[in-house]
């Protein structure tokens, strides 16, 4: 019995040692696999940078931003110069020079910019200065403030060397005159068609910046400001997590602090796509939401270089420049009825 007991114990010990050895081997293998996976992920992330995304079909703007990045520029320089392309595009009628005016015939611009450190600058109701995004950057870098408005913003811009000019082109003026024939002085969503250019970039160092610029809702009430120049609504950047920018009816974006919401959802573990979809659902699922009467769209990027975009209705698109490809991507959307 003693011999049998000894053999039994010895056998169990051998099995235990074998199992233990196997487990150690598996643990070591798992550790090695993890290291390999991490290395692969790291390589993949580096291979996808630099990266630029923007709202709507703006391949010239994203091309300019990528040109800056490939020349060694940082993400902040890229988004500014990329947005400037659209601000100077008179045919766009939604950003900068040539933008559709408010109900009084004044072209008024809103813009903001945000860097990797969380610094930000903004201008609202700016007139007679084409490159609002550049003025916003000057506010960020050369003043103790975040936002300047109206005449004060214009005076500041002039003091920094920006040349005033008439932003109302003949084409936009004629469109405004045509609208005035039957216009009612109240917000009417279906005649307030507009776009906004919002741009996000990640440079080769993995740092993120963003910018947003617009002439706002066409034929808006004088003095109206939307979400585009409001940090956390139209744009938000968190260099540890990612960034988001919005377009569409700004009032609805402001009510849900949309861009900040998207970034915080990514912080909680959601992908950029999932975060954009959740942010849209917050709008459409509000009590008494009239979401069928307006459009809102979000684009987002996380620290890994993964992107997402989503809107309430169809026809919203994102332009993406990555791995040498500059392309327009149609976004998925909520309202498919």
Name the descriptors:
337 residues; alpha+beta; Glutamine Phosphoribosylpyrophosphate, subunit 1, domain 1; 8-stranded mixed beta sheet; 5-stranded mixed beta sheet; 9 helices
CATH topology, by name, is Glutamine Phosphoribosylpyrophosphate, subunit 1, domain 1
Compute the CA-based radius of gyration: 26 Å
Mean pLDDT: 86
Helix and strand sequence: HEHHEEHEHHEEEEHHHEEEEE
Largest sheet: 8 strands, mixed
Query: How far apart, in Å, are the first and last alpha carbons?
Result: 80 Å
Could you name the CATH homologous superfamily?
A: (Glycosyl)asparaginase
Number of domains: 1
- What's the CATH class label? Alpha Beta
* Low-pLDDT residue spans: 1-47, 189-193
| Percentage of residues assigned to helices | 25-40%
Kindly state the number of beta strands. Answer: 13
Going by CATH, the architecture would be 4-Layer Sandwich
Number of helices: 9
Which term fits the overall shape?
A: globular
By secondary-structure content and strand pairing, the structural class works out as: alpha+beta
In what range is the share of β-strand residues?
A: 15-25%
Task: Report strand order across the widest sheet.
Answer: 4-3-2-6-5-1-11-12
Can you lay out the helices and strands and say which pair or pack?
Elements: H1 2-47, E1 51-55, H2 59-70, H3 75-87, E2 109-114, E3 120-126, H4 132-142, E4 147-149, H5 150-159, H6 170-180, E5 197-202, E6 208-214, E7 235-238, E8 242-248, H7 250-256, H8 258-267, H9 272-284, E9 296-302, E10 307-311, E11 317-322, E12 325-330, E13 332-333
Parallel strand pairs: 3-4, 10-13
Antiparallel strand pairs: 1-5, 1-11, 2-3, 2-6, 5-6, 7-8, 8-9, 9-10, 11-12
Helix pairs in contact: 2-3, 3-4, 8-9
